[in-house]
Amino acid sequence: MISPASIATQDSNAQDSTVQTLDSQTDSQALDSQADSQTSIAPVGLGWSGKAAIAVCAKIVGERIDTKAIERAKEPKIEQAGIIATNPLIIKAGTTGCAVILRYGVIVTFDLSLAEEKALLTTLQPYIREPISQDISENLPLTFRPKAKERLENGTLYLQACSAERLQVVAEALGKSVVLDYYETEVSSLFTKIKPFATAIQGKTRKPPKEEELLELIGGTLLIQQKMVGIVEVGEKPDPIWDYPELDRLYRRLEDEYELKERLIALERKLALVSTSVETSLSILQRDSSHRVEWYITILIVIEIAIALYEIWTK
């Protein structure tokens, strides 16, 4: 028979166990909440709350930017401004602005004046590889509406929150658009260069293309393809999307607005046409060269036969 004292003891132990379980769940939830707040880094202290809209500018400055070196650098201006987030890198800049530094040579600035942008470029100059002098940029006004649908409408981008991951996604879309602009211009110049080769194939010019020029064009085409596919990864999702899947819809809208996939496909087709044209010209040039060698050999044989006949005749 179980005594009332033992029943009371069991009830007390059960209550203590329940309290401990609830306490542990509460602590776990608190830790999860703390982890989420640490993961979702927001650009605090930029002073955008009182502004109706801020200016966003994406500009290509070089073939590549050494973002890892910027993170490790002891540059006073960068250290004083502070790093907001990484992958891709966001640093504070100017009075109330920031900049996303993309490793494939693009800098996307938020709320910077022309003077502040110029000062930022001067600071980052040592980390830019193979600088590009062409002024190719993409500009966009950005405004924050907590309850609005995140979209690009009438040339203005609407975001629900001012978070680092959203700025990174916007910067990736604008950066890829600027890179496509740059290489579309480069490919157009390649078409201008291969026109004389096509004319030479038709026989409308006496001056055939040089093999060195053809090889240079092939190398330029391969470099563009390698950067578009291997470095910029225009057809791939940005890294922040994998950590924040809810931002996939925002990126898809920007991707459709700037026609990133369509432009990439068109660029790949143009590059394929350039490669085919140059390879055809090179094969024809090599064929003509081999024909000349055959003629040289034939002439040498004829000369040798003539010398032999002359020697026989003189004897």
From TrEMBL:
The chain crosses the membrane at residues 295-313. It holds the Pfam family DUF155. It comes from Leptolyngbya foveolarum. It comes from the Bacteria. Keywords: Membrane, Transmembrane, Transmembrane helix. InterPro entries: DUF155 (IPR003734), RMD1/Sad1-interacting (IPR051624). This is DUF155 domain-containing protein. Residues 100-267 form the DUF155 domain. The lineage of its organism: Bacteria, Bacillati, Cyanobacteriota, Cyanophyceae, Leptolyngbyales.
